[in-house]
Write a structure and sequence with these properties.
68% of the residues lie in helices and 2% in strands. The protein contains 17 helices and two strands. A two-stranded antiparallel sheet has the order 1-2.
Length: 412
């Protein structure tokens, strides 16, 4: 590696570490407890499992796939030496931030390699900028650990398809969304059987392990738990109801069962019920379009990135939940798009960076105002949600424009 390129890599690594340090630090400064899930939910779950109490996903139904408990346990063990100095909560927060940074650094290293190309350097800068703009929510949520797993898996799809599919499936057993990348890879890739077998093997191993631990109906409980949710205030479909709340025609209520704020208004339950079949319909339509492109010989590097991003965007736009950490789901598809097909990734990359910035303004900075249904906060969320719809449309448009190696047959 020549000195100039070495210098660029050093600068990128410094930027990565500085961004994560600043982002971790802002979690202690910002309002609305952006680190709340880590200390109020993850730490108690880990403590219970390690002390012989209830084990979420095994002895009781859980909202997350079961492998999500693993990093919580790792952070709990790593935090133990720090407890005398920082207390239980402080030690766990520091351990969590270090864990997220370490796993992210591993993926960052895979992305850069020894001699990174210009697209890989651009993807690295995008990653740093996105984390900085999104703020503490980019680190202090379980989703933060699925991003680097998805990045490594996506980067290895061409060279190590079976390992890549296995990694992405592990990610899906932590949070569901990396399953969209598995689906996109199966459609766009050329080693479908190997990838499918690898994904099936990981899934089988997880299920067998859970059954041996004593899980039964809880194995797929994370799916049934999601169906019982109401319409969360930050969901795209909740936007009109928030304006009703501004006018006094709807209420924002806290669900102690799901631990989130939901909309209570006439028609909200019907919309919430309709969103799950709508999600299936939209994901199915996007997948069908990608399949058509694959059957016509579209190149992997052109087909996979827009397929992955569009599927993930569809999961967000049609979701009855709109948690701010959902924006982290968009980072891995964009990083991969920049690497595989940089010139066509610019518009979606700008949109995702804008989404990260808007999301941080909403949560945690203006969240109290949003809970009070103040017009400015609702307007910010409306802009964010409209931009999510725009991103979905941009993704569909990019997918429709993927060139085919074989022209479609037309009647003469």
């Amino acid at each position: 590696m020549n000195p100039a390129r070495t210098g660029r890599v050093v600068v990128l690594w410094c930027a990565f570490l500085l961004v994560h340090l600043v982002t971790a630090w802002t979690g202690w400064l910002y309002p609305s407890q952006p680190m709340g899930d880590v200390v109020l939910v993850y730490e108690p779950w880990a403590s219970s499992a390690l002390s012989g109490g209830a084990i979420v996903g095994v002895t009781e139904t859980w909202v997350y796939p079961q492998l999500g408990l693993v990093p919580m346990l790792v952070a709990k063990v790593a935090a133990a030496p720090l407890v005398p100095l920082l207390g239980v909560a402080g030690a766990y927060l520091v351990a969590w931030a270090v864990l997220v940074t370490a796993v992210g650094a591993l993926a960052f290293g895979v992305l850069l390699g020894r001699s990174p190309t210009r697209p890989r350097r651009a993807a690295a800068w995008f990653w740093c900028a996105a984390v900085l703009l999104l703020g503490p929510i980019a680190m202090y949520r379980l989703d933060a650990l699925t991003v680097p797993i998805a990045v490594i898996g996506g980067l290895w799809l061409a060279s190590r398809p079976a390992v890549a599919a296995a990694l992405l499936t592990v990610g899906a057993w932590i949070k569901i969304w990396p399953g969209a990348l598995v689906l996109a890879a199966l459609v766009a890739g050329r080693e479908r059987i190997r990838m499918l077998l690898a994904a099936a093997a990981v899934t089988a191993a997880v299920i067998v392990g859970l059954l041996l631990l004593g899980a039964d109906a809880e194995v797929f409980g994370f799916l049934t738990e999601q169906t019982g949710r109401g319409l969360q205030i930050e969901a795209v479909a909740a936007t009109p109801f928030l304006w009703m709340a501004v006018a006094g025609a709807a209420r924002i209520e806290y669900s102690f069962e799901i631990l989130t704020f939901q909309i209570r208004a006439s028609g909200a339950e019907a919309v919430s019920t309709a969103l799950t079949p709508l999600m299936v319909l939209v994901v199915g339509a996007v997948t069908a379009l990608a399949v058509v492109k694959a059957l016509r010989g579209a190149a992997f590097a052109r087909l996979f990135p827009p397929s992955a991003l569009t599927l993930v965007a569809a999961l967000i736009v049609t979701n009855k939940v709109g948690s701010p950490q959902f924006q982290t789901w968009l980072l891995a598809p964009l990083i991969l798009w920049i690497v595989f097909d940089g010139p066509r990734s610019r518009i979606p990359a700008v949109i995702v960076l804008a989404l990260c910035g808007l999301t941080c303004l909403i949560y945690p900075l203006a969240y109290d105002a949003l809970l009070g249904a103040e017009p400015l906060a609702v307007a910010l969320l409306t802009a964010r949600n409209l931009l999510l719809v725009v991103l979905l449309v941009v993704g569909i448009r990019a997918l429709a424009r993927v060139p085919s190696a074989r022209p479609s047959r037309t009647r003469k």
